[in-house]
Fold this protein.
Amino acid sequence: MSDIHLDDAVLAALQDVMEDEYPILLDTFVADSEERLRLLHQAQVEGDAQGVRLAAHSFKGSCSNMGAVLLANLCKELEDAGRRDALELAPALIEQIEREFAIVRILFKSERQRYRL
């Protein structure tokens, strides 16, 4: 697994497509990700393997779209664990996802600072 946190090529493509809306996209991703983490925790606490799988799948997609490579890979691992009903793996994976998201959040906030007027 790659140690890349963000794919610069994906960010450059998003910046080209989104233009002036790019900073809003960064803010939206961070806020949305916080909610997705809450849903992951809730499903894990409830012992809901299907809920874990669905929340991880959704989070994986948004991470992939935003170029958060390592975070997307961790979400895929959690999605697979949910699919296999292996919820004993969920707490450690969710902790890894939270740690990686903390890094990605800082990187996106730094990226966002470049667009302050």
Q: What stands out?
A: Residues 6-112 form a domain with the Four Helix Bundle (Hemerythrin (Met), subunit A) fold (CATH 1.20.120.160). Helices lie at 8-18, 22-45, 49-65, 69-83, 90-113. The chain has a mean pLDDT of 94. Residues 22-45 form the longest helix (24 residues).
